[in-house]
Amino acid sequence: xxxxxxxxxxxxxxxxxxxxxxxxxxxxxxxxxxxxxxxxxxxxxxxxxxxxxxxxxxxxxxxxxxxxxxxxxxxxxxxxxxxxxxxxxxxxxxxxxxxxxxxxxxxxxxxxxxxxxxxxxxxxxxxxxxxxxxxxxxxxxxxxxxxxxxxxxxxxxxxxxxxxxxxxxxxxxxxxxxxxxxxxxxxxxxxxxxxxxxxxxxxxxxxxxxxxxxxxxxxxxxxxxxxxxxxxxxxxxxxxxxxxxxxxxxxxxxxxxxxxxxxxxxxxxxxxx
Amino acid sequence: xxxxxxxxxxxxxxxxxxxxxxxxxxxxxxxxxxxxxxxxxxxxxxxxxxxxxxxxxxxxxxxxxxxxxxxxxxxxxxxxxxxxxxxxxxxxxxxxxxxxxxxxxxxxxxxxxxxxxxxxxxxxxxxxxxxxxxxxxxxxxxxxxxxxxxxxxxxxxxxxxxxxxxxxxxxxxxxxxxxxxxxxxxxxxxxxxxxxxxxxxxxxxxxxxxxxxxxxxxxxxxxxxxxxxxxxxxxxxxxxxxxxxxxxxxxxxxxxxxxxxxxxxxxxxxxxxxxxxxxxxxxxxxxxxxxxxxxxxxxxxxxxxxxxxxxxxxxxxxxxxxxxxxxxxxxxxxxxxxxxxxxxxxxxxxxxxxxxxxxxxxxxxxxxxxxxxxxxxxxxxxxxxxxxxxxxxxxxxxxxxxxxxxxxxxxxxxxxxxxxxxxxxxxxxxxxxxxxxxxxxxxxxxxxxxxxxxxxxxx
Lengths: 273, 459
Known about the structure:
The structure holds two protein chains of two kinds. Chain A has helices at 59-67, 89-94, 112-116, 131-145, 161-174, 191-206, 218-224, 247-256, 265-270; strands at 21-30, 33-43, 48-52, 74-79, 82-84, 97-100, 179-183, 210-214, 227-232, 235-241. By secondary structure, chain A is an alpha/beta fold. Chain B is mainly alpha-helical. Chain B has two domains: 3-7 and 41-206 and 311-366 and 374-458, ABC transporter involved in vitamin B12 uptake, BtuC, CATH 1.10.3470; 216-306, no CATH class. In chain B, 71% of the residues lie in helices and 0% in strands. Chain B has 17 helices and no strands. Chain B has helices spanning 3-6, 17-39, 43-62, 70-95, 103-125, 133-161, 165-183, 218-245, 253-275, 281-290, 308-326, 328-338, 340-345, 350-376, 387-397, 409-428, 433-458. The two termini of chain B are 15 Å apart. Chains A and B meet through α2 and α4 of A and α8, α12 and α13 of B.
């Protein structure tokens, strides 16, 4: 059983695969509420780390410090082993960190290409928006993710959940993401679209992209993640290798905050009422 | 009322008359819209143009042609300008989910500052000769700088401190107007500099630049019209060609040709009407004596042509339209209206964009203020009183949504012209001033009502 809440305690392997991201002792408080307390997690290239926990466990808040949406109060973030300061989303993107948010973070009133390139517009020599070039790229990238996508000139508010997700994921991967944060990527999707997103995650993983996958669907996480980090009440319960645990053991971590070694058979049985 | 949209497919149960009427109205709108889609034209904008034509023809008929005389149309155009200029800025403010209630007061303050600059500071204090060219430039610059600073203060408080724009600009509505009284005890400052007075479009303001005072005259009007036609054709054709190069769907060729022909015909007709407005006889005589021309028997016929303020408005509408649709700034303004959080998460500094919209608004108020001071030939404390509501109404009639994210510059300009046409039209048929306000208020509610019905159907 290898639990590694603290990477320092591991016996140094001969060839240790370089860590893509390390988040050390991250703390975030809102007013007097400690939303995230001393959490340490990491991510390797080509790896999917599932971040799970109940509502209000602090998953999204933790990950927002990495995407630049909200700075951490204390703690350290290392990318490729180098300490970095991420003050805003622009700086995160400059480091190759892309995020798809749970609410998809799309501007409802503008079309798919405009959302795709929001903040990174292609421009002509005179500095005007090059809408034709943007539409062309958006058609290619989004069309690959979702061949049924046709409405490139209508406001995204009229699109389905899956189409909107294609825009959000398309723009995250198009700009050479090395680190991808996906916050509840399948929450708004039907079964077929969920399967599509799962395939996509496997493909991105094979291309060497590191993915933080936030979800409260434990089956999603078991299907896709290599390691699972569990949070409860703003604290990290622990990080486990998926191959070494059962879903019940992860459920016990989520609900009771107990690591697989600490939990009794009776408690596991009680999970199922 | 809410059940109307839901009932579209259910077999008709007995309905109240009102429900049937709204349903049929929605059906008609829907059919017109699908026609507009084939031509890729803005359905709502086309509707407004048609409504405007109907209003003009209606008043023309009701007033025995008085409304449609070139002279009246010239006045309607000139009188629409200050509201139209400010409405172009108000569109961006409302689109990004803010409001500016101070525009009337800012317009008044900047107009007064422009008047002070030319009548007092430069001439009385610095002893610059009347009519020297520096005067009108300095007056306009002072107004623009004051407008930008005022807009910057308000925008800064809204964007960086987070005070609601309604509150900040309501405060501004009081403050900027009050400051006028502190500058020169609120005295009326008149008359305006001879060159500055061209800006207002008054035909009596004789100047060296043009034969017809505040208008540009016969040939320049034709040149402007032809340039506009060429511009429209060029823009439509290049954008079609570009979309074609990328293999995107384009509008059919006949639609392209129709659009160009209709657009150009409208512009050329407008130029022809304006050039059929001769300088009134008294002014023509004045002009003749001034330039040592002997008047022919039938009197001197000097076509007036396009008014200078209308030319300024066309320029501003072009620039604002470009900013709103072709630049990152405009794209972000609209995106903020759709989902401010998404824009922030995309790494965009939304505060700077909001600040920018208010600075721009202040500058537009200043330009409107200069035109108004020039039109009145005076700087007076009451300039722009009540304009904030006219400007907001023009933007809303033009299709700007208070929910944010929706609006067009052309729509706002048309909204201002439509409102002024109603006002002027009712004057020509002898309706009194309270009735004019009743009509404008009704149109505002009616138009927004149509939008609401139509959007419900579209969902």
